Amino acid sequence: xxxxxxxxxxxxxxxxxxxxxxxxHVARTRRAGNDVVVVVSAMGKFTDDxxxxxxxxxxxxxxxxxxxxxxxxxxxxxxxxxxxxxxxxIEASSFTGSQAGIITDDEHTRAKILEVRPDxxxxxxxxxxxxxxxxxxxxxxxxxxxxxxxxxxDVTAVAMAAALNADVCEIYTDVTGVFTADPRVVPKARxxxxxxxxxxxxxxxxxxRVLMLRSVEYARRHNVPLHVRSSFTWEPGTWIVExxxxxxxxxxxxxxxxxxxxxxxxxxxxxxxxxxxxxFGELAxxxxxxxxxxxxxxxxxxxxxxxxxxxxxxxxxxxxxEAVREEVGAAKVSTDSNVGRVTVVGAGMKSNPGVTALxxxxxxxxxxxxxxxxTSSIRISCVVRADRVEESVRALHTAFGLDAS
Length: 405
Ligand code: ADP
Ligand code: ASP
Ligand code: MG
Description:
Blueprint: E1 3-8, H1 16-31, E2 35-40, H2 46-57, H3 63-87, E3 92-95, E4 102-104, E5 113-116, H4 119-126, E6 130-134, E7 137-140, E8 145-147, H5 153-163, E9 168-173, E10 194-196, H6 197-205, H7 213-221, E11 226-230, E12 238-241, E13 254-258, E14 261-270, H8 275-285, E15 290-295, E16 302-310, H9 314-328, E17 332-336, E18 339-345, H10 355-365, E19 372-376, E20 379-385, H11 389-399
Parallel strand pairs: 1-2, 1-9, 2-6, 3-6, 4-7, 9-11, 10-12
Antiparallel strand pairs: 4-5, 7-8, 11-12, 13-18, 14-16, 14-17, 15-16, 18-20, 19-20
Helix pairs in contact: 1-3, 2-3, 5-7, 6-7, 8-9, 10-11
């Protein structure tokens, strides 16, 4: 028997009945002789509700106060789960991120974990208790409460599992594992028994939101076995593993979709050395993370530069571009939020030419125009109109032979 970390997402603890079901499952795991650490998210869509409330109260939202507000959601869940465990006859104690020793930097709303000091969690386990930890939150060196970014409870769970040298980190959610595409978009998607870390990272980075990207990176770095599974059916789900030689390398193993980005274009940019450096330097300084970048061929010494950013960063990106526009004498800055991205991911792509051609042909067959393209050795992404994303994903899923029979 060993140490097991079990993380439950929002839907999994969405109401009293769900919380009792979770407690029952945790109790069984405990009774089987395991040390159990539970990590919980806020109930249902509570984090979104709190953000809306903040919006209604004030256009001014100091990040420190947003973090203080949002962490309340996970505190509610952890206390309720402990109460439900008590009803199961299981001794349990709840811990905030700070109490659990999740030490972060001080980047409010998107803090990174610097260190985990799980002394109190170890103590609770030694006393025979189940430790229930509030996900998504930590404390900075300057003792302010921080949050880890949306979906961040996944990172809490993996970090706890790494710090405690857990045998497995189980991510319980509202689907039965990682699928060949979001099963809500592609009804014919199939569950994958195993996915390599490489593929999972590409999926998480391009919209496969079942695991937060940073949790996958952390798990790989610290060798944490990850098992994504359902808190509704409790059946075995998907293991995220290091790629090994006997692993079947599908040319394309998944198709992802993402409509959380916008396209920013700076047009009429003088095509001379130093201009791009100035533009992207300004964006970096303002903390804007870029994704795809495209520069058109120059005409009459002028060019257009387009890139994609998270929708939440559009205003900051526009500000940076406007500032540089005057300085370098570019014509115009425009933004477009009606874009989306479709991506095919597969470790076998490395050794199989023709994936790009089939992807373009498939999109062309349904009359979808490709606006931007980016690739890695195991991924191809295309930016298309947002309202064409879902049908594009379905067409690609079929074209690459992924549909369930
Ligand atoms: P939780 O609240 O448990 O963290 P999330 O909503 O963050 O759950 O993630 C689970 C959701 O991820 C599923 O409901 C599903 O719609 C979506 N999803 C997107 N892509 C995939 C995929 N490839 N496989 C499984 N689920 C996916
Ligand atoms: N409650 C947080 C969110 O909605 C964290 C999480 O669920 O992982 O983003
Ligand atoms: Mg999640």
